[in-house]
Amino acid sequence: MTTLICGSLAFDNIMVFPDRFKNHILPEQIHILNVAFLVPEMRREYGGCAGNIAYNLMLLGGEPLIMATVGDDAAAYLERLDKLGLRRTHVRHVHGTFTAQAFITTDLDDNQITAFHPGAMSFSHLNKVAHAKTARLGIVAPDGREGMMQHARDLAASGVPFIFDPGQGLPMFSGDELLDFMHLANYACFNDYEAKLLSDRTGRSLEHLAAKVDALIVTRGGEGSEIHANGQRYEIPCVEADDVVDPTGCGDAYRAGLLYGIANGLDWLTTGRLAAVMGAIKIAHRGGQSHQTSREEIGARYRRAFGSLPW
């Protein structure tokens, strides 16, 4: 089943400051802040929610189809997609822009200063869901504001079930707009902070919102996750990771597990557990797409944690 992944492709530029920010920022001079940090260590990772979700769904043996926008600097990312066999039929090059990217500086106390440039992501509305005629399932992940609204409306109008996954883009929307998303979507997924913000913005309880969709999923990091579906709440435990290296992209790996389970008709308990396995595999590696594993290895990991897996 072809799954349309609407979201961002981005570069994550990660720099390490071998000191502590607090040693270089004077609180009494914060009104005239002018600081520079020497960062001898830097790496660039392939990221963006659409790229991360599609990568993990590919590892599971799914059929991801990315819908995203990139800028003039995207050649290396596009070449990577080709090498991975990830179709980029609906990856649009927006001339005169940069690909979306984050610049993240981390100090020795794991404090972070981040700047994010949306670039081509702001033109995501130029992509039309109607052009992805083979899609049978979708996800609206963090992207340009107008693009997220349009893609949700278009997926609903075309009868393609989809997950609403606003992530860090949730604050862009008003309470009424979030209720519209929940009305259009078949499924919705948030982390615990986003779920609280959703309730605050809409003035609705999580239980009330869960009744608007077939399933509402809330992830809680190391405390596992929960799935509200069929009038029940399924508790999904966190899967122990081989190592805890980098949480970047763990949520996207989890969502790939959800999409695979939905596409293949797995029950919610199995789907949630598979999603948890994907998150545990990812967290042991740096970046959102550097982990390499086979479908068979994923299945073996699931069986070690939960028992038999129906594939």
TrEMBL record:
Protein name per the record: Carbohydrate kinase family protein
Xref: CDD domains: ribokinase_group_A
GO terms of molecular function: kinase activity
InterPro entries in the record: Carboh/pur_kinase_PfkB_CS (IPR002173), PfkB_dom (IPR011611), Ribokinase-like (IPR029056)
Residues annotated as domain Carbohydrate kinase PfkB: 35-290
Any Pfam family matching the protein: PfkB
Family matches, as Gene3D superfamilies: 3.40.1190.20
Organism of provenance: Candidatus Dechloromonas phosphorivorans
Keyword entries, A-Z: Kinase, Transferase
